[in-house]
Specification:
With 183 residues, this protein is mainly α. The chain has a domain at 11-19 and 29-143. The protein has helices at 11-20, 33-38, 40-57, 62-77, 87-92, 120-134, 157-162; strands at residues 145-150, 164-169, 172-176. It has a 3-stranded antiparallel beta sheet.
């Protein structure tokens, strides 16, 4: 059995890794490297989204990867920018106590090691699932679905008390916030 890397990456190191792993996306030919060279902000945002979805759901079927992606996008468009106003802000936002919105983004989390450029097949799999969501394809579910957790953990109190279970997709359970209405 192979040992996983315990390498800890900071957001700055991740940014540098993204520059080294600019894998052309051949899933949709119109959105290959030349397109993103002209639109580097889109490329950087997409890379962060692919990275997060890979860290959180790379072992899932495409529907599970898309569902995680949809939660991120829902948080970006959520009213008042509570979660962050950009994909990168949403992905890396954490509380004063160091709790990250997405546990895989905490420096040192084992799930961060997948960004290694040797994992190109995983990168392509995740990119293929994420790209249609990012480009405005049909949403996987309602815009008020803003939370999820691994099915293997105990349901957090906040989820039990404040949220409505929406669906189980793969190894994640998704929740809607009944107090949010996005038009």
């Amino acid at each position: 059995m192979r040992k996983r890397s315990k390498k800890q990456l900071t957001p700055e190191q991740l940014e540098e890794s993204f520059q080294m792993t600019m894998v052309p996306i051949t899933v949709y030919p119109q959105f290959t490297a030349p397109f993103f060279e002209k639109n580097m902000d889109l490329w950087t945002e997409l890379q962060h989204l692919i990275f997060l979805c890979g860290a959180e759901a790379r072992g899932e079927f495409p529907s599970g990867i898309k569902a995680v992606c949809q939660v991120v996008l829902n948080r970006v468009i959520q009213q008042k920018g509570y979660f962050g106003k950009t994909i990168k802000e949403v992905i890396y936002k954490h509380s004063n106590k160091g709790m990250y919105q997405f546990s895989a983004m905490k420096p040192g989390d084992i799930n961060m090691s997948w960004v290694d450029p040797k994992h190109t097949s995983t990168w392509y799999k995740v990119a293929k699932a994420v790209l249609p969501c990012y480009l405005g394809g049909p949403p996987e579910f309602d815009f008020n679905v803003l939370y999820y957790h691994a099915a293997s953990i105990t349901v957090p109190k906040f989820f039990r008390d404040k949220l409505t279970p929406f669906d189980r997709i793969g190894n994640h359970i998704f929740y809607a916030d009944p107090n949010i209405s996005i038009k």
